[in-house]
Amino acid sequence: MKNRVPIIFLLISFFFQNEINAQASEELNVVSTALPLLNIGPDSRVGGLGNAGVAASPDANALFWNPAKLAFLGSGKKSGGISYTPWLRRLVPDVELMYANVAVGLGDRAGFGASLRYFSLGDITFRNENAEEQGTYRPYEMALDVAYALKLSKNWSAGVALRYSLSDLTQGQVVGNMQTKAGQTVATDVSFYYQGEVNNLPDGQKGQWLGGLNISNIGSKVKYTESGDADFIPTNMKLGVGYNWSLDRYNRVVALFDVNKLLVPTQPRRDLSDDDGDGDRNEILENYIVDPDIRGGKDDNVGVVQGIIQSWDPSAKPRGTEELFEEFMFNFGAEYWYDNKFAVRGGYQHEHQNKGNRRFFTLGFGLRYSLLGLDFAYLFPADQTVRSPLENTIRFSALIDLNQILD
User: Fold this and answer.
1) How far apart are CA 87 and CA 391, in angstroms?
2) Domain 7-265+300-406 class?
3) Structural domain spans, the chain
4) Considering the entire predicted model, what is its pTM?
5) Per-residue pLDDT at 364
6) Best CA proximity match to 56, nearest among 334, 248, 250
7) Which of 5, 43, 154, 354 could form a disulfide with 61 if both were Cys (CB 3.0 to 4.6 A apart)?
8) Model confidence over 219-250: pLDDT tens digits?
9) Is 232 helix (H, G, I), strand (E, B) or coil?
10) pLDDT at 162
């Protein structure tokens, strides 16, 4: 894959999250961040559930969706997982997301987890402004996580995660006369999980409510140059509920619903008009960067804490309360289990068209046998005018019962 260095940033934006309708609109105002890797669901089980995972039952992948779930793994339970997701497979053969994790139940009241995420953009030949080759490199992003969870009561738990992330997109190349560097940050998650009592229903059926909250990626901004501005990482709130419905000894249905919101300030509307009428585009861009004339919303060049607060402020949005509600993403998922050994899944994710328009359906299935569990997921867009880097791609995950290997 060959390209010039400045184009790499556009590629990253497309690869990860800017699946936007090409039609220009004054209302289109996507909330973008650095390190979008941190918000990509890595495993195929929840991938088949439309990414509704914050309240799903605990497994080795709980650390990403809700670290507090680790407290409900069970005493002495040890499990691991690996996941593989091809990315933009229809266009390039070597762009991929890989995820490995381990989770351990610490007695009846606590749990521990660790994971590694790695996103490779494949081999890219960098070129300067004169189209001269500067070498072939493999840009990447990665995140290393550790988490601890503790039961607060029989039904409630809380968890925290610590995360180191690195984004090396340009391998130290000079871009626009600026020396680039890898972006690095440390962040944390704060989460809660609810696992209700199992209630008896008519005809021998049973039901159980589930719930979860995870505020993830609370951390410092990242910089890719010494002199450039720092970018927010994708601080995010996941809030979800679920219901576990056992029809009989062999048949079980789980329904899940999540709400997601980026806790990052919205870009204001700025006036980029040519004030003196000479048509100097460079002058316009200089005014935009140095002294922006904000016509709607508030300046998004703020600190992390203020940015979280400002993300909820309607007056900080160019279109006020209407735009605030557009920034909520909704995820729905359902899975049917037979004898806890075979699962069929479906899901749907909905994002407003002015905020990225990532709307898609998902399908998946899972198998559990002895020490091994396998999950597969498939995605197809709900709007054919908006493409997804995961469409027509089969995602794969494996869960391993480490107790049967280590004990």
Assistant:
1) 9
2) mainly beta
3) 7-265+300-406
4) 0.87
5) 97
6) 334
7) 43
8) 999 988 877 788 999 999 999 999 999 999 99
9) coil
10) 98
> Residue 32: CB partners within 8 Å, gap ≥ 6?
13, 17, 18, 267
Q: How many CA atoms lie within 13 A of 168 on its CB side?
A: 13
Distance (Å, rounded) from C-alpha 255 to C-alpha 243?
5
182-202: average pLDDT: 95
φ/ψ of residue 262, rounded to 5: -70, 130
Tokens of 15: 């690869």
Widest distance between CA atoms in the chain: 79
Q: What angle do CA 297, 302, 307 make, to 5 degrees?
A: 75
Q: Tell whether the model's pLDDT for residue 187 goes beyond 80.
A: yes
Alpha-helical (H) ranges within 229-329 are 281-290, 304-310, 321-326
> How many Å apart are CA 84 and CA 98, to the nearest integer?
5
- 223 is written with which tokens? 């910089």
Phi-psi region at 39: left, alpha or beta (left = phi > 0; alpha = psi -120 to 50): alpha
State how far the Cα of 242 lies from the Cα of 246, in Å rounded to an integer: 13
At 36 the three-state DSSP class reads helix
Q: Which amino acid is at 305?
A: V
Question: How many other CB atoms sit within 10 Å of the CB of residue 200?
Answer: 8
| Residue the block writes with tokens 């909704």 | 330
DSSP state of 46: H
